[in-house]
Structures are given as structure tokens and as C-alpha cells.
Model the fold of this input.
Amino acid sequence: MGRAVCAAVSDAPDMDLVAAVDPEYAGIDLRQVTGSDGTGLLIAGHPEELERAGAEVAVDFTVAAAAVENIRWCAGNGVHAVVGTTGLSGPELSEISELFSDSEANCVVAANFAIGAVLMARFSELAAPFMDGVEIIELHHDQKVDAPSGTALHTAELVARARDASSPFSADPTETTNLRGVRGGEAAGGVHVHSVRLPGLVAHQEVIFGALGQSLTIRHDAYDRTSFMPGVLLAIRGVGLRDGLTIGLGSLLGF
Done:
């Protein structure tokens, strides 16, 4: 994701890539890591390089523990943050909200930057009041360290909230399970979520609704990490216009 973001920002006519931070590759020419020409940057080992380089927006795709520290630095130094790192807890998001309410900078945190995935979650939210049951299957590459995905959890929250306005989904009829966890995990509103991790996958999710005599499946597939870049650029352009913390791309897309 870091390589894809660097390439997308470098190619955007209204943006300049001024710094790249990764402790593992500190001191290495960015071109050796990304394959992009024309940056002329050495990878730095600490976010302080962002301030030295005059960065206006920092994009974070790391792991949760590192992301929290990076976000704290951004809030304290007046650098807008666009965060695609998943696995941030509720208390951590509350802290981030407080940090940016007192900062000159703003922050956008999104579980998924693929615009199609944002639409998938929105369409699922719209369908929820009209169907009788739902389950979510999310499928990712075999290097993903958290399960279920942030997108699946976010989708379950949207679906459960939309359903609260009507009536509960049908209860799970399962009385006996012959394999532990075979019915998946229960997210918000008791929505069952199933996680698949396999080589060759990138990021995929389907939301399966059921009702009397019918089913509705809403699916999104990301085949390459470039699919996330339009959403990342959208957030970079919009973060400075939104006070405090914004969660998800929905509001940037007008819903």
C-alpha cells in the first residue's frame, strides 16, 4: 500500500510527494522500493521528516500500534492525517477524536478506500430494513494480520443500525456446531461474519441477505491495490476541509 500511495501521489497533478517514512527502509532511495522515477527522496525513519519537508498531509498504512503513535504525532504537529490502517480500537478512535478536536489539523480514518467497497456497505445499509437475515463473508490475502476486516465490521455496524429502525433479523436457528467457529463471529446486532485468508486474494467481501423465497448478494472485489488509490486521493484532497475526525469515506462521497 505504501508503494501504491507514493506512486499515486507522485502521479497526481495537484500533489507533491515530499517525504516517505518507514523505519525498516530508512536511508534507502525511495525509487529502489517503489520503482517510481523522479522522486529523488530517501526514506526516513521517523515522522519528524514530514515536518522538515513541509508536508501538509500524512498517509498512514502501517499496523495499529504504529499508526496510533504516528497519528498522535500528526495531531501534535499540525499535519493532516489520512489513515487506512485497520485494527484501531474504539478507545483509540476516541483518543484520536479528542486529539484532533484540539489540533490545527484534521484526520480521516477509513477501513477501506476502494470507492466500490464504500458503495457496497452503503447499499447493504439500504437493503437491511427489507430483508429477514444477513451474513457477511470477507476474503483477503494470506498476509493480513487482523480478522475480521475493518470493512466487514463497519458493514455490520451499518446494517445493524439500519435494522434497529425496523425489527431484529431472524434468530440463528443453529443448535449444534460440529466445528468450533463454523458459524463465524458475531458482530454488531448479532450479524455473523466469516473471514477467509488465502494466497492470491487481495480484498473481497460479499453481504448475503435472505428473505422469504429469495436472496440478495452484494459483493465487491478489489483485484489490485490501485483500486484503493482514488479513495486515498479523495481523502487527501478533502481532509483539510473537514474539522476534527472523519470516519469513513461516505461523507466525502456525499452520504
In short: The chain has eight helices and nine strands.
